[in-house]
Amino acid sequence: MHVKILGAAAGGGLPQWNCGCQNCADARSGEIAGMSQSSVAVSADGRDWVVLNASPDIREQLRLSGLHPPSRRGSPVRAVVLTNGDIDHIAGLLTLRESTPFQIHATAATLAILEQPVFRVLNPALVGKQAIRPDDPFEPLAGLRLTAFAVPGKVPLFLEEGEVKTDLLGEQTIGLRIDCGGRVMFYIPGCAAVTPDLRDRVGGADLLLFDGTVWSDDEMTRTGTGVKTGGRMGHISMAGPDGSLAAFDGLNLARRVYIHINNTNPVLRPGSQERARVGAAGWEIARDGQEILL
Question: What does DSSP say about strands 138-141 and 144-150: parallel, antiparallel, or unpaired?
């Protein structure tokens, strides 16, 4: 299985256009590497690819990753699979509108969001939409078997109304299991909590790409960049007794990598104590352009 990290950051990327936090300032000056918004490409043969979430940065991501047209017109991207309807996961579809065929796979709840008029720029004669049913495997490409499953999360920000539940289990937020050639990876870029079922499900995998949005639940308020907690945004923190470091501690995983990392997260600084703790626990921090062969 070929895996390319097209983008490793959470929504807004690093640096975020309107943020002057230390990480963003360091990224602008070149002290730390910048990152585009979370997206991953997978392939069984290195020729035809499935993109997991279409980030707003997808045009540049495809250019830098080498996923170039194989002929005068076309693309090696054969399908896009969406894990939810967040802007940083669906906006890139609007870039893929220039009359090249591919398939979109998403839950019925996410496909309903794509019924908004702006997405009509995707020619339905070329761009098909296929509904994903949780725990029902599908093959977007020969050799790649994907299985979606519900993880705790919430509706996209633009659909929030009244009191928001951030731990919904349904079609709003899914994780993906990808099987290829006897290898297994999981892609879970958004998750509000690690349940016992989720921990059991991912155990034994060759690769886990997991939600690394914030280090601590109060990170936004502590850095003066926002008022919402990580939990309110639908993302589990890395640290703390209920964080993902503790939740996955001791679990048999060949490789564990944090992805979808917010611009405020201190693990982005190579010399930070937080980065050292993550490394000591056996975790890596995803980076744009990273390639993994399983």
Answer: antiparallel
